[in-house]
Every structure is written in C-alpha cells, then in structure tokens.
Amino acid sequence: MPRRSAGSKFFIVAVCGALAGWVLAAAALPAAAVAGLATKYVFDAYNRMPSELKIPPPAQASRLYAKDGKTLITRFYEEDRHVVPLSKVSPLMQRAMVAAEDRRFYQHGGVDLRSVVRAFVSNVKGNQNEQGASTLTMQYVRNVLKGDEDLTPQQRIDATANTLRRKVQEMRYAQALEKRMSKQEILERYLNIAYFGAGAYGVESASQRYFGKPASALNLPEAALIAGLVQSPDTDNPISGDRTAALNRRGYVLDSMVEMKVITPEQAARAKATPLALKPKADEAPNGCTSVPEEHNDWGFFCDYFVQWWDSHPEFGETEAERETTLKRGGYDIVTSLDPKIQAVAQSSSVGVYGYGSPRALPLAVVQPGTGHVLAMAVNKRYSLAPGAGNTVNQLIGGGGGVNGYQAGSTFKMFTMLAALESGHKLSTTFNAPARFASKFPASGHASCGGRYCPANANPSWMDGPRTMWTGFGRSVNTYFVWLEQQVGPKKAVEMAKRLGIKFRSRADARLANTKEVNIWGSFTLGVSDTTPLDLANAYATLAADGIYCQPLPVLSLKDANGRELDAAKPSCHRAISADVARAGTDAARCPVGQQSAYGKCDGGTAAAVGALFGSRPVAGKTGSSEGNATETFVGFTPQIAAAATAANPDSPQDAVGEGVSSSVNMAVARTMAAALKGQPEAKFKPPSRGIAG
User: Fold this and answer.
1) Least confident range of 147-151, 242-246, 249-253, 670-674
2) Is the dihedral angle over the CA atoms 72, 77, 80, 81 positive or is it negative?
3) What Rg, from alpha-carbon coordinates, does the chain have?
4) What is the 3-state secondary structure (H, E, C) of 462-477?
5) Dihedral, CA atoms, 347, 387, 72, 402, nearest 10 degrees?
6) Averaged pLDDT of the chain
7) The predicted structure's pLDDT at residue 574
8) How far apart (Å, rounded) are the C-alpha atoms in residues 61 and 256?
9) Which residue from 3, 122, 389, 486 has the least number of CB within 10 angstroms?
10) Is the pLDDT confidence value at 42 over 60?
11) CA-CA distance, 554 to 335, in Å (whole number)?
C-alpha cells in the first residue's frame, strides 16, 4: 500500500468512521466488526478509484432570435439552463448558496472532516434524522456525474445511489477538484449546474423563472428563497410545490447567513417579513417551434424550416438525432434572417387571400438575392399540433417532411429560356406560335394529338403569332416554350432548374428528372413538376444576383456556448449561370409585369398591375397557372428582393383554386416586396449584352 501523509491518513480514518456509522444504522453487526469492514472497504476502494473527474459542459438551452438579435423566437432545450459567469450572479445569491448548502465551503479542501465526524456521531447515536456530510464541491461532483451523457444510464443512476462507493468516489473527486480549481470557480459551476425546480436548471434560469429578472439583480429575500430550493426542488418550489415549505427554507438560509456573519440579524428579519413576491414566467420556458409566442404564431413555420436546415448539417452531428441533441444541449445563440416587419406584411398578404380556416392556402416566401437569407415565410395557417381547421405543422412554404410542393405552371418557362440562352439562342429567337403545337415528345391523353404531346395556348387571340423570348415570356405563350424546349432538349431545362435550386421531392418527378425519361419530358417547361415558394423565389433570386446562386439560409449569425462564431452561418454561394445569361433572363422577365425591357421589346404582360404598383422602381417576375387553374403562382424580384407564392389546396389537389384568384396572388407578392423595399434605393437591373439580345 502506498505511503500517505498524516492529513490523508486522518481523512481516511474519518471517512471510515463515518461510513461505519452509516452502515451501523442499517446493519445488526457488532460495531467493531462494521468499523473494520468499512475501513478495509474504504482503503481498498479509495486506492482503486480515479481522482480525475471528467467534466463535460452542462446542457444549455439554445436561443433563436429574429433578425434584430433581440426578439426571441423560441428556445430549444433538454434542460432550461443558461450558463453565466459568477460576475453576473448577485453577491447575495452567492452567499445564500454557500449558507444553504456548505457553511464551511471556504475552509475545507473538498471534504469537510468536521461535518464527516458530526455525521458519524449523530448516526452512531441513532438520531432519527440521519446526518449528511456532502460539501458543495461533492454536490457539484454528483451533478456532473448524473448529467454526463457519455456515461451509461446505470452509471448516471449510480451517481445518486445511497451507497458507500458513491460517497467515497465523490470525496475523492472533490479533493482532487479543489487542488485544481479555485473556490470561486467551483461555486460558479455549482450555481450553473444545480436544479432549482419548476423546470429551471442553473441560477440564471431560476431567477428568470421565479422573479422574471437576471441572477445579477436578485435581492436578499429572493436569493435566499432560490438557494433554499436545491434540497427539494420539486416539492418545495413555490410555483408548483409547497409555498410554506419554500418560505421555511428561505428562513433557514437567512438564519444560516446570520451565523456566517454575512448579513445582520436585522437584515434577516426584514427579509423574512418580505412577502413572497413571485413574478413567474410561463409554466415552462418556450421550447421548440410549437412554443413560439402566440402573437407571432406564424413564425413557427420559419422556425420549423430552421430546424430542417440545422438537421441537414453534418457539423452538428453524424445523425439527425445527434444534431437535434446538439441543438437542445449546446447553448447556441442563433440570430436568424427572419425580418419581423417583412414577415408581418407577408402574413397579412397571405391571410388577405384566404382566411385561417380555409382549406386552401397561400404559402409565400421572401429571400435576399446574393446571400440566400430567408427573410419571411408566411401562410394562412396557424402553426399548431392542436386539432382544428387552419392548424398544421406541415412545412407548406419550404417543403420537406412529406410536403412536395405545388405545380407552379409557367414560372418554369424561365428554366427553358435560360437553357436556350446558354446554348446560344438569342432573346430575339422567333417562332410563329400556333394555338396548338404538335411536339415531337410522345404522349397520350387529352394533351396529345397523334401520340405526341400537343399543348395549347390559354388565350389564342392574344398569344398566337410570331413570338420572341421577350413576348413569349411576357404573354406566357405555351406553344412557343414547348417549341423552345424542343430546340434545346428537356434535359437541359431540367438541369438548369436543378442548378438554380429546384428540388424534385415527389417520387414521380424525381424519376422523370433523373432518368432517361427526362429527354421526353415535354411538359416540364409548363411547370407540371411540384416546387415550393421558397425554392422558386430563391431560383429567381439567382437572376437578381447576376447568376450567383446561394443556398437558402435562415441564419445571420451562429455562436456556440463559448461565443465562438460558426462557419455554418456564412452564405454558401457560387456562380450557377453567366451574368449575361442571368441579365437576359431578367430582361425578358420585365415583360410579364408590364414594364419594359432594356431594348424596348415587351408588348404585354400577364401581371401588368405589378409593374404599376412599383412605378419607376424596376421589377421583374412571372405568373404561373397549372392545368385547369388548380394552382396559381407568382414570383417577383428586384436586385434587392425576391418573393414567390402559390395558391393551392395542400390536402386536395383536385380542388382547383381557379383563375379568379390569380390577380390576388400577384398583388400579395407585390405588396410584400414593396414593403420590404420601403426606404431602399431604386436599384436598376443591368441590361444584357447586344450579342445575347440579338
């Protein structure tokens, strides 16, 4: 057996005596035999046990803020905790905690021998209330072990089991900790890890939970009350537990502070006479997207999209489950790109088309060109798990989780046009568009003629005749664009859509987009594939950014619990198409909204009221109607903003929303864009080269 110092030997002897006393209280053995067994057990166990305690960071809540960095959207947590330095904890709270749990904290070395002996004597005498000897440091050790996710569930249970081994291990760890940490550091860690009842972990959360203030602002009666809760946090807390017991514990802590001479008897008396002035927050702090404040319930859909984004990033964990755990335990500060002012207008615009109780929906998304920042995600639904019309947690705006999106009609003509421009065709490419066009693509059914895909124009008298990309796009001439797709091949149009971020979520669309069948997908240019307002807005934002595609991004900044900025919050952008091709596509997109292209080639548009709303401010966009007007879509953009919305019945595609809602959809998007641009300079689109214009 290794040699030990006199102090260490005394410690072992004292511990053995105490442990013998604890065993004696429960065993019918002669005292000497019990003491001998305990002594041998402790010597052997103490020698075998590790002394270096692994201290993982405590679980902390992550906070999700709006764009201003101040407005809280929600939090994510397993334990509602916000770690703060000791400098942000009221000195009164610090003193109250020591007085409540370990008066001799500043005198002992992790194990209080005087308390050990006192407990031994009391237990040997058979006192009815068994005496403990756990120091604040030992309690900290216990909290660390029971919360260590790297330990097995049984090991975490063992950390609080009433066994000799657990007590000896705590003592060994506590002594080692006191050699490498200051008292202030131990106190800080204890205050941040302890549970104070009512779902509050750590002193900062407890202070907010009970009194609605930071721990730095706690006064004497408040500090004493909180400090008194750690022994029985669930039964004694004054919100859901026993108020009388909470006040009695407050009185005990105040008396203990007097004995320690950190307050006077007069101060204690005044504090005891102070009524219990609780200012409790909600029964539980907001946790997750369904806990977004009621007045901003529509933010829940943006929150849901943020969680999707987080779960897709491998830097937060190897699996989706690990990433969610990281979010709930990591203590991240996340400033999102959600702009409350733009969101409010988008939500009002959506609800202005369909009410909350309507089975139909108008999901609307707003993004920033050049960054991919998602500024708003609105829909005329309440983000809720509760049953009832208008309640849903389905991601109707961004897709995913079983939501594939909606047919966006002629908005997909843009991808065919860009593919043609990239292949060398000019904006001036002319085709004498017939009322019905017999393509080379095989097809059957009502849209076929002679076994070929044979689309028709919706308004022959206005659409038929010689058309260019400008006029074909402005008047949304189906036969012109199926002919143009035939010139470049559907595969190039589909690949262009992919490059601009269009996802093919349904099994049928994915099969057509990713197999040889893509070569005969003649109807692709007419928008028969499902997409979402977010994907569509971001695709057109690529044109606004002169061909730079940025992945949709719901965050502006992301800091871990140590305040370190993470790269995941940085925009991920790359050139998807040349600047000249993007500018040419934009020039043609001036036509549908009733404005004029750089070369004066527009002669009518399907959404002329949009251009009138913007006046002198340049704007571009495209309408889209799916077959039978089952859905109606509009996507608009300027150099600073892009937005899209689709009217649809998400639960019943057979419920056609009808042509009559088209103008309402157009103006819902346009008004949202106009509000987002308020106060910003009138940015101009750059004209395409004469070479690509033709």
Assistant:
1) 147-151
2) negative
3) 34
4) HHCEEECHHHHHHCCC
5) -70
6) 90
7) 98
8) 33
9) 3
10) no
11) 9
Q: Are 77 and 62 in contact (CB under 8 A)?
A: yes
Residue 233 pLDDT > 70 = yes
Instruction: Give the whole-angstrom CA distance, residue 46 versus residue 111.
Output: 14
When pLDDT is averaged across residues 360-370 and rounded to a whole number, the result is 98
φ, ψ of residue 660 to 5 degrees: the values are: -65, -20
Question: Would you say 610 and 667 are in contact if contact means Cβ atoms under 8 Å apart?
Answer: yes
Specify the long-range contacts of residues 33-39, CB closer than 8 Å, at least 24 apart: 38/164, 39/13
- pLDDT of the residue at 285: 76
Beta-carbon contacts of 487 under 8 Å, excluding residues fewer than 6 positions away, are 420, 423, 425
Lowest-pLDDT range of 277-281, 286-290, 605-609:
277-281
Across the range 464-485, mean pLDDT stands at 98
Q: For 322, phi and psi rounded to 5 degrees?
A: -65, -35
Exposure of 294 by Cβ count < 10 A (0-12 exposed, 13-18 middle, 19+ buried)?
A: exposed
Q: What is the pTM of this model?
A: 0.87
Q: Compute the half-sphere exposure of residue 423: CA atoms within 13 Å on the CB side of its CA.
A: 20
Question: Does the structure show a pLDDT above 50 at 22?
Answer: no
Query: What is the SS3 assignment for 477-545?
Result: CHHHHHHHHHHHCHHHHHHHHHHCCCCCCCHHHHHHHHCHHHHHCHHHHHCCCEECHHHHHHHHHHHHC
Report, as an integer, the average pLDDT of 281-310.
Answer: 90
Of residues 373 and 126, more confidently modeled: 373
Q: What is the pLDDT of residue 132?
A: 53
Q: Could you give the CA distance from residue 213 to residue 190 in angstroms, rounded to a whole number? A: 20
The β-bridge partners of 620 are 637
Tokens 């949304």 belong to 476
The DSSP element (H or E) to which 382 belongs, if any, is strand 382-383
In tens, the pLDDT along 624-644 reads 999 999 999 999 999 999 999
What's the average model confidence in pLDDT over 364-387?
97
- Does an H or E element contain 74, and which? strand 72-76
pLDDT of residue 170: 86
What HEC string does 387-453 produce? Answer: CCCCEECCCCCCCECCECCEECHHHHHHHHHHHHHHCCCCCCCCEEECCECCCCCECCCCCEECCEE
Which range has highest mean pLDDT (120-129, 151-160, 452-461)? 452-461
Cβ pair 419, 469 in contact under 8 A: no
pLDDT at 446: 85
Q: Residue 62: beta bridge partners?
A: 76
Structure tokens at 77: 């947590």
Burial 126-158 (b: 16+ CB within 10 A, else e): eeeeebbbbbbbbbbbbbbbbbbeebeeeeeeb
Bridge partners, 632 (sequence order): 625, 647
First to last CA, the chain: 95
Report the pLDDT value the prediction gives residue 164, as an integer from 0 to 100.
Answer: 75
Residue for token pair 């750690």: 230
> Per-residue b/e over 113-122, b at no fewer than 16 CB within 10 Å?
bebbbebbeb
Alpha-carbon span 193 to 190, nearest angstrom: 5
Q: Is the pLDDT of residue 127 over 60?
A: no
Q: For the residues of 565-605, what is the DSSP string, one character each?
A: B-GGGS--EEE-S-HHHHHHHHHHHTTTTT---TTS-----
Better pLDDT: 21 or 360: 360
Class of residue 478 by CB neighbours under 10 A (exposed 0-12, middle 13-18, buried 19+): buried
Pick from 398, 649, 658, 381: nearest CA to 536: 398
